[in-house]
Design goal:
single chain; Arc Repressor Mutant, subunit A; elongated
Amino acid sequence: MIECRFLLVSLHIDAILGEVTIRQRRKKLEEMTQGNGLGDAYTGALARLKAQKGNKSILALKVLMWVLYSERPLRAEELCHALGVEIGSVDLDLENVPTLRAILASCLGLVMVEASSSTVRLVHFYPPRASLKWPNPIP
């Protein structure tokens, strides 16, 4: 439970620092004090994730779906290769494989790599899969 609180604080700080002016930051803080805790924090984190420019948001959504829905924890290299596969292609194009650094950066701190096993996982607790409304990241 304590680690969950630290995650909530981290998500809140990211949301506050995402605002540009002091007034906007105070408004965001006021919104948080009337919010739903971790659920609202995840919703805000997903909104920031989807607002990223270029293909970063698509990459991040693909990463989260792979991490959430894979039958077993994926090693970092496996995730990179899975993300490099394009629908309709028969071969893996190594030039299309994202770097682990790009993957982690696009996820804005929601995923991490376990040092001992090199598996990729969400930072901590997350809402049940059924409560998440994932958009289709593939255009």
